[in-house]
Design a protein that fits this description.
By secondary structure, the protein is an alpha/beta fold. The protein is built from 7 helices and 8 strands, in the order βββαβαβαβααβααβ.
Length: about 260
Amino acid sequence: VSTDIQMAGTAFPHESTTQTTATVSGSETTAMAATETQTTTTEAVKKEGVPLANFSDAKSAQWLDRSVLESADTFTAALEQVSGTKAVVVPMKLQGGWLNYASTVSYVAGTYICDGTMTASEIVNLAAEKGFSVYALISVTNDNQFPELYKDASIPLIDGSGRWLDNSVEKGGKPWMTPYSETTVSYMTAIIQELDNAGFSAAICQDFVYPSFWESDRDFIDVDAYFGADRYKAMQDLADAMVNASKNMTVVLDMN
């Protein structure tokens, strides 16, 4: 029987990942013929996420509150109040893991995680009618809801008996999404693809973060993965996957 556990002790400081950009490396293919060896090098298209500091459109856009997406009427009313810009930023995936729209991503479609009535396409289309481009604001691994539905997206205990929680069960301890999970990567790339297909101009992705661990957690979770100096690499791999999931939408990375 799996057991969820959280141990108290000396706090391990909260730490976000170092800001870098995503790339796709080239590949080399060698073809052998009967009388000669021919080497062909093919370079894949290089895709890079845009650091938030370099995305000037974010500064000129109007950042809207999560409440504006409660309905088409509230969104329309909010857009009518915007002046001096033709771009708006709307919170689509919130801290804690809630989705602020009616997602069609198979992992969560129709579940309690979707705390909104408008689809991504409806949001874009309504904004376009008012002459606005839309940027999605995405909180990435600050997510306690998805790992409630999919335990393999949680931080596992090293002995395989359960998952780590950020407090005791009695005190409302919650699981956290881990970047090491294939399910996490699949979910986040699916969200990017959904927003891209809906016509969002950009996705501003932030909260590439681990929870604040306790020193005593070293006895229960993978020390190298969650305390090691290279733990940022898992977040960078997740960011790379999200960047490469988009065909047309700009993926902006806030990894400070």
